[in-house]
Design goal:
Layout: H1 3-14, H2 25-29, H3 31-51, H4 54-64, H5 69-84, H6 87-95, H7 101-124, H8 127-159, H9 165-189, H10 194-216, H11 238-242, H12 244-256, H13 258-261, H14 263-269, H15 276-329, H16 338-364, H17 370-397, H18 400-417
Helix pairs in contact: 1-3, 3-9, 3-10, 4-5, 5-8, 5-17, 6-8, 6-17, 7-8, 7-10, 8-16, 8-17, 9-15, 9-16, 12-16, 12-17, 12-18, 14-15, 14-16, 14-18, 15-16, 15-18, 17-18
Length: 430
């Protein structure tokens, strides 16, 4: 593809007209083609994420194969905590790499390989053995994802300018959501045998992850002097002592995990009962549709002020959960439109949180410490996710509404706390 054509597409996506002053000369020269490679590989990765969603796809698959409930219940914690907690131990290895794109590319290929193993296991085994092997493959996938996560923000910061990173990642989210919408519609229609559909979707996810890794490997990344990687992983926690803004950001992000944890409780609140899978299919559709209509907008807004994206996401998430409680009080929560409408708004907030916190961290972190900031932040958030999940489960003992109320309060506190964050983007008006 001609360089001029790539630059024109990049400018249309990001609104970028001037050169990125925060990039070196080599990175500025290749920013447009690199930005398009980011968008394409990230789109494919996000499609794969949606097709193998442990909250829906893998949980249903393991249940269908006859895996015991204890294994099914472990799938989401394995995926969420497994993708975050190991980052503190891999950051030094990644920082020792002159070109860190290979960490992301390799992690993506490993995720695809783990997804292929899940398809093979489901095709030939069942029962507890199948469930255990699926959980083990998911653990490998989560570990590979952690490598991608801890390396990506650093690579993005090296290859795409500060004022257009949100647009690139937002474009990828919106593009990927179209494929997930189609998958959700097929799940809800029931026109295709569901087991065949789910296995085909996971196989497609495997192909997409491998393809994304191959594309990402073609990035033009300037080699840098490798970090020695000396010291124990825990030393990175010194950034929490040295940078109060990082602590504030993690606290905000920790409160906003409520937008990720609340959806299953909303499904229960709506009385999904025996139709849980169909209602969760609607959840996937609501999430994908919300991503499609909001991710690009959130991305462009985060390029101007990711702080305001976090504020608006927290407040809108709290409003959505508050609306669910109000609908229950009015006896309307089981209406056919009620939970889908609430979920749609909540998912818009959720995608705003994802976009805002990613852009904020990249723009806030000192260039030489991006990987360490990412690892520390994600490790703490992994622990918060585990703690919040336990607290949410305990709150549900008092009733599903109590858990929803807890998450609403967390989102509200997070949105309000985000007012205290520093502005880290350079606004056009400045």
């Amino acid at each position: 593809m001609p360089q001029d054509f790539q630059e024109e597409i990049f400018e249309r996506l990001t609104g970028a007209e001037d050169e990125a002053e925060d990039l070196d000369s080599a990175a500025r020269e290749h920013e447009a083609p690199n930005g398009l490679r980011h968008a394409l590989s990230l789109s494919m990765s996000k499609v794969a994420d949606g097709l193998i969603d442990p909250k829906l796809v893998l949980s249903w698959l393991a249940t269908t194969l006859g895996a015991p409930p204890v294994i099914v219940g472990l799938l989401v914690p394995i995926r969420e905590a497994g993708a975050l907690l190991p980052q503190l131990f891999t950051v030094n290895l990644i920082r020792a790499m002159p070109r860190r794109k290979w960490a992301w590319a390799g992690g993506s290929v490993v995720q695809g390989s783990a997804a292929a193993v899940i398809v093979l296991v489901a095709a030939v085994l069942d029962g507890a053995v199948a469930g255990a092997l699926i959980a083990a493959a998911l653990a490998v996938l989560a570990l590979a994802r952690s490598v991608c996560s801890v390396s990506y923000k650093d690579i993005l910061g090296k290859t795409v300018g500060k004022s257009r990173r949100g647009a690139i990642t937002g474009t990828a989210s919106s593009a990927a959501s179209l494929a997930v919408v189609a998958f959700a519609l097929l799940l809800m229609m029931g026109a295709v045998d569901r087991l065949a559909l789910v296995l085909s979707a996971i196989a497609l996810a495997a192909v997409f992850w491998v393809g994304a890794g191959l594309i990402f490997g073609t990035l033009r990344e300037t080699a840098r002097q490798a970090s020695t990687g000396q010291g124990v992983p825990w030393e990175h926690f010194r950034h929490l002592r040295e940078d109060p803004q990082l602590v504030h950001f993690i606290a905000v992000r920790g409160m906003l995990v409520s937008t990720a944890l609340a959806p299953p409780f909303l499904v229960v609140l709506g009385g999904a009962g025996g139709a849980a899978f169909e209602r969760l299919g609607a959840l996937v559709l609501a999430s994908a549709a919300a991503s499609f209509v909001s991710s690009y907008v959130w991305g462009r807004l985060s390029d101007r002020s990711s702080r305001w994206v976090l504020i608006l996401s927290g407040l809108s998430g709290a409003a959505a959960l508050g609306a669910a409680l109000a609908l229950q009080a009015l006896g309307l929560v089981q209406a056919v439109w009620a939970i889908p409408a609430v979920l749609f708004v909540l998912m818009i907030a959720y995608h705003g949180v994802r976009q805002g916190r990613s852009t904020y961290l990249v723009d806030m972190a000192p260039r030489e410490h991006r990987s360490a900031y990412t690892a520390v932040s994600n490790t703490v958030i992994g622990l918060i996710l585990l703690g919040s999940g336990v607290i949410g489960a305990l709150a549900s003992v008092a009733g599903t509404a109590a858990a929803v109320a807890l998450f609403a309060v967390m989102a509200l506190v997070g949105g309000i706390a985000a007012f205290g964050l520093n502005e880290v983007e350079v606004l056009e008006s400045s």
